[in-house]
Amino acid sequence: MLSEEYARQIARDWNVKASGAGYVTRFAVRKEFTARYPVQIVGGSVHKELWIPAADLPEMNRNIVGLIEVITEFKAPSKEMKRILFYRVSDAFGEFSNFRLIRFG
User: Fold this and answer.
1) 24: how many CB neighbours lie within 10 A of its CB?
2) Helix, strand or coil, per DSSP, at residue 99
3) Between the N and C ends of the chain, which has fewer C-beta atoms within 10 Å?
4) pLDDT digit of tens for each residue in the chain (105 aa)?
5) pTM above 0.85, yes or no
6) What is the 3-state secondary structure (H, E, C) of 53-72?
7) What is the C-alpha to C-alpha distance for residues 105 and 96, in angstroms, rounded to an integer?
8) In the chain, what are the domain boundaries?
């Protein structure tokens, strides 16, 4: 992905659903390497990608300049954080006749 906005969208909307977490990273790659691959537009104007074949990934890794930064992370809500509280509610006659459900998290 060539834009942070698009990377955030994929991490948040796809990766979290598929694997429970999504991360956005930022890094620089030498132009001499990226110039070999045409920019692909796969949706709106922010949905730009470089399609680099898997066989070329070792060479891409050698062309990364500087550090790879994790700039954003998205995580699915923890199941432990989702609590459901059931409680009985008394009616006008003092009888416990129904249950209420409250969701937290």
Assistant:
1) 21
2) strand
3) C
4) 899 999 999 999 999 989 889 999 999 999 999 999 999 999 888 899 999 999 999 999 999 999 999 999 999 887 544 444 444 444 444 443 333 333 433
5) no
6) CHHHHHHHHHCEEEEEEEEE
7) 27
8) 4-76
